Amino acid sequence: MSDAPREEPTDRTAASIQETLQLVYAGKRYSWPGGGVNASEQSMARAVQSIGQTTAIIIQDAAEMLRNINTVEITAIGAATTKWISTGDAAYQESILNSLKIMQEAAALYLTIGTNAHEVFARFKKSE
User: Fold this and answer.
1) How far is CA 124 from CA 12, 16, 44, in A?
2) Global pTM?
3) Separation of alpha carbons 9 and 15, rounded Å
4) Exposed end of the chain (fewer CB within 10 Å): N or C?
């Protein structure tokens, strides 16, 4: 057995909280509990953290939307391709091209959502 003192879960939690606070307060000295940082700075840091979490959720939802649209459109392309091959009817090509266009538009929307979310977060963080 090791002679090193055993670290308790509460010690690990306190250390984790301390690390998080140091990162949130961007290098400002933060003494446990709360000394060195005024209430306004604490509120601003919490608001920035909340905005960051919200933007992450928005981007995550947009990625899910993109994945779902791509799944539907890939399925439609597969069905149209099968019909096109079996019938030789070139009308199915239009359906395939439409599905590709929808996927491109969804990717562009994902980029717009991600860019806008980043911009909102960056603007809010600058006001700190």
Assistant:
1) 31, 25, 10
2) 0.62
3) 10
4) N
